[in-house]
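Explain my protein.
***
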Amino acid sequence: MLPDLLDLQAAQFRNGGRGQVVGGYHQFDCWGLVMAVFDRFGVAVPDFARSCWDAEGNHAVYRDEAESGRWLKLAAPEAPCLVVMRTHPLAPEACNHFGVYIGGGKMLHMRDEVGVKLDAVNERPWKRFILEYRRWNGNTSR
């Protein structure tokens, strides 16, 4: 069952945002929104204090997390799962943007230019940016 996400859809972008309320609106960057959406599904995922514009640094954190076994790679998306994307034009191999698959072919993610977006994972442009889907398996330690 899909949790209530309506209030998150009005959130605004803020680099480093983790849900603080400013002017009546939650403030998130893409990972902050990932954490909030997973929390609504009853799943706590770790925080990574990195600038959302640090494509290479975020890729390094992602690579370490992917290799840790804490995130299981999925053959197909299932709600909730992490949507891993490569969107940076100057670092096309870097996994630098993340969203959450919420079911029904849709993902919720934060874009700095427009705020929270609900987009279809199988439509342009996202289909070409999505590298993989991962489910949190926090029971595995490093």
About this structure: Helices lie at 30-40, 55-68, 126-129.
